[in-house]
Design brief:
It is built from 8 helices and 7 strands; from the N terminus they run H-E-H-E-H-E-H-E-H-E-H-H-E-H-E. The protein has a single domain, classed as 3-Layer(aba) Sandwich (Rossmann fold), CATH 3.40.50. The chain is an alpha/beta fold and 182 residues long.
C-alpha cells in the first residue's frame, strides 16, 4: 500500500479519513509531511480560521511560507478578515462555492512551485452549509481542476461522518482512500 507522500508525488487525489478527535492532529501531520517534501500546500479551510491554522502550524515547526490559505470561515464567523494575514484569500462563507472555486483557480494559476497540493479541510464541515449534491459538484470541480493542472489533492474527512451515497460519489473522483490507521 502506498503512503500519502507516494500518492501526492504521483499527483493523485486522496480522501483521508480520520477519527473525529484526531482531525486536527491529522491535518497538522499532513501539512508537515507535504511541505517537508517541497510542496506548496493550498489549504481550503471551512473548518478552522486562518489565524488558528497559522498558529497551529507554526507551533509544530511547519514553514508557513509554503502554505497558502483560502479561508471560508473567518468572514462568516467574525464578519471581517483577519488582520496581518499573509498568503490568504478570504471568502464570505463555506456556502459560497463560486468564490471558493474562483480563489482556488486564482491560486493554482499564480503558484510558482510545480509541486502543489490542495488540502480541503474538511469535507464534513462543508456539509453543515451545503447539500451533499452541491458538495459533490464542488469536489468534482476541484478534482477536475487539479487533474487539468496535474496537481495532487487531499480531501480530509471524518471517518464515518459522510453518508454512504455521498461517500461513494466522492470515491468516484479520487484515486485512493487512506483511513485513520495509515
Amino acid at each position: 500500500m502506498k503512503s500519502l507522500l507516494d500518492e501526492i508525488s504521483e499527483n493523485h487525489l486522496i480522501l483521508v479519513l480520520s477519527e473525529p478527535l484526531e482531525l486536527k492532529k491529522r491535518n497538522i501531520e499532513i501539512i508537515k509531511d507535504v511541505t517537508s517534501e517541497g510542496f506548496t500546500v493550498i489549504v481550503l479551510t471551512t473548518n478552522n480560521p486562518y489565524s488558528i491554522l497559522v498558529k497551529d502550524y507554526q507551533k509544530e515547526g511547519i514553514d508557513t511560507e509554503k502554505v497558502f490559505y483560502i479561508d471560508a470561515i473567518t468572514r462568516y464567523a467574525i464578519g471581517k478578515e483577519a488582520e496581518d494575514s499573509k498568503n490568504c484569500i478570504f471568502v464570505s462563507s463555506p456556502s459560497d462555492l463560486t468564490s471558493m472555486g474562483i480563489a482556488v483557480s486564482k491560486v493554482l494559476k499564480e503558484t510558482k512551485n510545480n509541486k502543489v497540493c490542495v488540502l480541503l479541510n474538511t469535507v464534513n464541515s462543508m456539509l453543515i452549509y451545503i447539500t451533499p449534491e452541491n458538495l459533490i459538484k464542488f469536489i468534482h470541480f476541484i478534482a477536475s481542476k487539479l487533474r487539468i493542472f496535474d496537481m495532487s489533492g487531499i480531501f480530509l474527512a471524518v471517518e464515518k461522518g459522510i453518508d454512504p451515497p455521498t461517500l461513494v460519489q466522492l470515491q468516484s473522483f479520487i484515486d485512493d482512500v487512506i483511513d485513520g490507521e495509515n
